[in-house]
Amino acid sequence: TIDIGGNDLLRCVCGGAEIDTACVTEGVQTLEKILPPILERLRTAPAELEALTHDFLIGVTEFYRDPDAWHALEHEVLPALRASGRDEPRWRAWTPGCASGEESYSLAMLLLERSGDVPDAVTVFATDVDTDVLAKADAGVYDLDRIDSLSPERQRLFFLKGTGERAGSVKVRP
Hints:
The protein has 174 residues and is α+β, with helices and mostly antiparallel strands. The chain has helices spanning 21-44, 46-56, 67-83, 102-114, 131-139, 152-158; strands spanning 3-4, 7-8, 13-14, 18-19, 91-96, 122-127, 141-143, 159-161, 169-172. The termini are far apart.
């Protein structure tokens, strides 16, 4: 349950779809009391707003995270797109909320593998509201252990291993 100012806001929903309007009214009145000071604090303390924004962001990413989804994309979605008469060998995709980029690069790798030798066959637009992680995604540099789950073939085709002071890291091939 969520307890704000002594009121259990979740008790407002009772018995499936029925809603206790008195409880909703009480909850709204409670929110009307507590929101103005919170909003004022966020207006006057930019660091607090930044911290709250980062608290809302998930930031969980890895190469080919959620194997079932990637399997479905590779073996069901992409073949269905090809079968639907899409003869164009080029792919354009958008990954909103890309975090540090592992899933965006996973999509690019998969589409490149399915595009054959067509030059400039894949364009992936990767966006995120967190500019810090977006800069990491743009750099394409990761700790070596981040690609442990990838096949040796994918590691060889899509990554450059760091040497010297960069040993222990990989960079996505340009």
